[in-house]
Amino acid sequence: MGRCEICGKQTSSHSLDEFVVCHSCWEEDSKELQDLKRGYKKRKKQLKEIEVTGEKIAEELMDVRSVEQVRSLLQDYQQNLNLSMEMDAERDIFLKILDDACEPLSNKLFDAAKEEGWSFLLELIDKHPPFDTPDSMPIVNAVSRYVIWIRFKKEVEDIPIEALEYLTEFNDEPTDMWEDSFTCGWGFDHPEFDFVGELESAIEKGQIFWAVGALEQVFYFEQEKGADILIDFLRREDLTEDEKYDLTQSIALIGDKEWESSEFVPHYWDWKEAVGYDGFEWDKEVKSTLREAIEEELEERVSEMVGEWDFCDLASR
Ligand SMILES: [Zn+2]
Asked: How far is ligand 1, taken at its centre, from the CA of residue 38, in Å?
């Protein structure tokens, strides 16, 4: 039930989206009703147009020739997502645009970054702040990829602190962006980036599994350093045993999948193939140092495991 948009009487006779009109006003077909109907039609048409923008953007992305075009398609994407949020209470259209355009847009933003360098991505970060952007995923994804890319091609100092800090802004709730933001772990030894501090604050606010994901990234690039960070956390007195155990999940999967299975961070991109990473193997010394620390700090948990335990036995079940 609602109130008739024309006479105010309780009714549910005829609905025009958010408006209802009672039967007698509908029959009377006044100018007011005609205006309402016209508005309704116009709205439907607009919604239809918004609904296909994701497809259109994806199509146009296939043959973009300039960085300027990519930038403007990103703008288009955000604008249409905004419109869909305003007009479509069901959010189906929002999700359709995401489905159609997010991945191709992420791909092109990354290509553009490889061409233009950090200035391109930093400008996007600046122009599309997380709190004011309907979908940050294409930017987060391109930044994540480029962080890894640069880490392999250059030095950690060649990653701007703004990019790493931008990623940490997505550590609040588990989403695709949350997962991609684990890649700030590739900046673990950046002179201006307080990576351990970021892990601490994530743990403090109840996002320990973000810390786990970000710490896991460090092992890919420098397992000694990853082990140092993990062991420091295991030795701390301000963490509970459960928290310490949770943190060991950062290595539990490394041993298990041995880098053969496909990774999901960052999305839409196989970084190992892209940078020519030839697989992960534990360094014997690192592995035994880690084992010792875990046996000391998580004695009970480890003693529950039968026989010669391995990191994969740590995996939460
Ligand atoms: Zn009425």
From this structure: 17
Alpha carbon of 261 to those of 149, 183, 253, 255, 294: distances in Å? Answer: 20, 18, 11, 12, 26
Distance CA 21, CA 2 (A): 9
pLDDT digits (tens, 9 = 90+) for 227-240: 999 999 999 999 99
- Global pTM reads 0.91
The pLDDT tens digits of the residues spanning 145-201 come to 999 999 999 999 999 999 999 999 999 999 999 999 999 999 999 999 999 999 999
Distance 10 CA to ligand 1 centre (A): 8
E strand intervals along the chain: 2-3, 10-11, 14-16, 19-21
- Ligand 1 center to 47 CA (angstroms): 27
Going from the Cα of 43 to the center of ligand 1, the distance in angstroms, rounded, reads: 22
